[in-house]
Design brief:
InterPro entries: Bombsn_rcpt-like, GPCR_Rhodpsn, GPCR_Rhodpsn_7TM. By secondary structure, the protein is mostly helical. The chain is 67% helix and 7% strand.
């Protein structure tokens, strides 16, 4: 999130823990190594998310409500990887902010927007699974694609609105290191005076972009779990095969969304925790090696969240896996994928999660 602008590692004091000049081996070589890891994360994320979006856009059978939301999620991840990750990596190769005052306002805005799109889209996905499983009769079938696109647009607009304060208040500020009596200028959401603003900023960000959405998702999944257990217990032993397949399909979709939510929660929690620590110790600049390493790992883990979703879906869905391989290999399914997926996807006439009756691949998601 934008508050991670405070993660400055390039101007630490020369006290034996983090030398200040990247030309010195202790900083220069670790900086290259860290930037290389960033590059790998960006590359993997670009390949995965672009292929996911292409798959959902070109394969008609995969254009359903969850997948449209996942495409929006992938678009937000791409935005984060293309804009914010390279800027974050540059901090380990240069001892000053390289992107000027305009970049200091734009990058935090983009980052906050992207994280907002991710967590609010996951919340919308949980709500969609709740309607499909607990209240299937409430699902509207007319103009479903248009309505989902409108909802996704609203999520983007809402996230951008929440990010406006980041662009307004973020600026280049001068910080002072008491141990060495050095000063440095970096991009930060507020000047280095007073301790109220950083505490408010960190707590509001933690609540809005983490705690509250995850609590809402948890409530949805409690009702989903109850509904699925009730359906399983009330179904006769010789139950309708078509109904059983529908329930299994809903379980798979709910499981997929839950995995996405779990990955988000795990990947972003360390980043939030470190920022909260920084905001409550704002008067001091922690130059310890432990803090440096934990901060780097937290940042990389947060950015890694933007590249894991396509591959998590790849492992969870045979239908998506086949189409993903086809898109990745320019329209041809590789031989190893064909052998792994022997039997393919048989068209099965089932009642879709939207309420209509369609012929869908039985292995789709």
């Amino acid at each position: 999130m934008s508050m991670e602008q405070m993660f400055v590692f390039s101007a630490e004091p020369e006290d034996g823990s983090l030398p200040a000049h990247p030309a010195e081996p202790f900083v220069w070589y670790p900086g290259i190594a860290i930037a290389t890891v960033y590059g790998l994360v960006i590359l993997v994320g670009l390949v995965g998310n672009i292929t996911l979006i292409r798959t959902f856009c070109t394969v008609k059978s995969l254009r359903n409500v969850p997948n449209l939301f996942m495409s929006s999620l992938a678009l937000g991840d791409l935005l984060l990887l293309v804009t914010c990750a390279p800027v974050d990596a540059s901090r380990y190769l240069a001892d000053e902010w390289l992107f000027g005052r305009m970049g200091c306002k734009l990058i935090p805005f983009i980052q906050f927007t992207s994280v907002g799109v991710s967590v609010f889209t996951l919340t919308a996905l949980a709500a969609d699974r709740y309607k499909a499983i607990v209240k299937p009769m409430d699902i509207e079938t007319s103009n479903a694609t248009v309505k989902i696109c409108i909802r996704a647009g609203i999520i983007w607009a809402f996230s951008m609105t929440l990010a406006i304060p980041e662009a307004i208040f973020s600026d280049l500020h001068t910080f002072h290191i008491a141990k060495t009596n050095e000063t440095f200028v970096t991009c930060a959401p507020y000047p280095h005076n007073g301790d109220l603003h950083p505490k408010i900023h960190s707590m509001v960000s933690f609540l809005v972009l983490y705690i509250v959405p995850l609590l809402i998702i948890t409530v949805y999944y409690v009702f989903i779990a109850k509904s699925l257990m009730s359906s399983a217990s009330n179904m006769p032993v010789e139950g309708n095969v078509q109904v059983r397949k529908q329930i299994e399909s809903r379980k798979r979709l709910a499981k997929t969304v839950l995995v996405f939510v779990g990955l988000f929660a795990i990947c972003w929690l360390p980043n939030h925790a470190i920022y909260l620590y920084r905001s409550y110790h704002y008067a001091q600049v922690d130059t310890s090696l432990l803090h440096f390493v934990s901060s780097v790992c937290a940042r990389l883990l947060a950015f890694a969240n933007s590249c894991v979703n396509p591959f998590a879906l790849y492992l969870l869905s045979r239908g998506f896996r086949k189409q993903f391989d086809r898109q990745l290999c320019c329209g041809r399914v590789p031989r190893w994928a064909t052998r792994a997926q022997s039997g393919g996807c048989n068209n099965t006439h089932v009642t879709s999660l939207k309420g209509g009756s369609h012929s869908l691949p039985s292995c789709n998601l």
